[in-house]
Every structure is written in C-alpha cells, then in structure tokens.
Amino acid sequence: MVDYLFLVLAIALLIIGIIGCLVPVLPGPPLSFAGLLVLHFTEFAEFNITLLIILGSLAVIVAVFDYVVPIWGTKKFGGSKYGIRGATIGLLIGLFFGPPGIIIGPFIGAVSGELIYKSDFSYAIRAGFGSLIGFMAGIGLKLAVSLIITFYFIREFFM
Question: Does 32 have pLDDT greater than 90?
Fold first, then answer.
C-alpha cells in the first residue's frame, strides 16, 4: 500500500517537474529527479546508482544554468541590469497570460528596463532579444533534462 502512495507521489513530482520547466517559480529538473528517487525506493523500480548520480548532477547543473543563461543572453546582446530586472518582472507578469505571456513577457520587460536605463530603442530591442534567447535556452535545457528523467522513469516502470 505504501509503495502505491510513493508511486502517486513520484508521478506527481514528475508532472510538477515538467510544469516547473515552464513556470519559473518551480525548480523543474530537481522536482523531476525527486520523482525518480521516490520511484527508486518502491518495489516498482530500482535504478543503477551511477544513473541516479548522473541524472541528479544534470538536474543540479541545469537548475544553476537556468539563472545564468538568461543573464548571459542579455549581456551578450549588450543588456544591462535594468534589462535583466525588466525581463524578470515581465516574466512574472507574463505568468498571468499563459504560455504566450511567459514567452513575450521577458522580452517586453527587458525592452522596458533598457528603455528606462537608456532611451535608445534599437539598443533596448537588441537587449530584449538577448534576454528572450537566454530565457528560451534555459527553458530548453530544463525541459530536455526533465524529459530525459521522465524517459528513465517510464522505461523503468513499464519494463
């Protein structure tokens, strides 16, 4: 009976982890990995320790990169701290508008932040695109790792 409760918890963590790849408040890959760990401690699956270490390391690395990549993208395209802060605020506001808001919000926020810093529109647009590219790269990395974890979860559970 306890194993079935752990199974439900593991599946919930996995699903929340995938959602967390798109919602910036939730740490997607670490939650997905937590679901994998919970499954490991049930009678349904037993993972190789090396695989768990590799996937856990990937989850931690991507969680750290998630904070670095958007900043790198903004700086690479000439953005400032204002653009980075604007992108963050735009992302939080964009959450209320669903997936389009999550994508467009950081761009509009970065452009707005850069316009406050410097009233050069072309500069602001360039920094906004850098923020958007960095943000999308971060989502892609998180989603890739969470889907890899999901693959191993499903493979071990059904095979």
Answer: yes
Residue that is written with structure tokens 């920094």 in the block = 127
Three-class secondary structure of residue 1 per DSSP? coil
Average pLDDT over residues 27-46: 91
pTM comes to 0.78
Domain assignments of the chain as residue spans, ordered by start: 2-158
What amino acid occupies position 130?
Answer: G
Q: CA-to-CA distance for 19 and 75, rounded, in angstroms?
A: 27
CA-CA distance, 88 to 106, in Å (whole number)? 6
Provide the sign of the torsion angle of the four alpha carbons 63, 68, 71, 72, taken in this order. Answer: negative
Which residue has 């931690």 as its token pair? 60
